[in-house]
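Appendix B. Raw example, untouched.
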Amino acid sequence: MEILLIILHIIVSLFLIFVVLLQSGQAADLAGAFGGGGSQTALGMRGAATLLQKLTTAAAVIFMLTSLALGIVGRSSSSSVIEGVEATTPAEAPADPGQQQ
């Protein structure tokens, strides 16, 4: 189950990167930052969602769900990465460096 989730998560991650890189910028110039210049401003009017925007939204939702599922599945395992490591104590250092001989 965990391996299937990991594979799905990797595929969705790559798809999400691909879809985001295909989209055009949203008025990234200086005029776009202040609400001017074109219909694609950050806080201005928006048109209908394109297919790429819908695919991005769907991929983002699936990415978040697989992330949550992997977190829940990973928490249920009781093994730890540092279980087999022996605890070592540091060597004793003198309390006052001025008293060294």
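End of appendix B.
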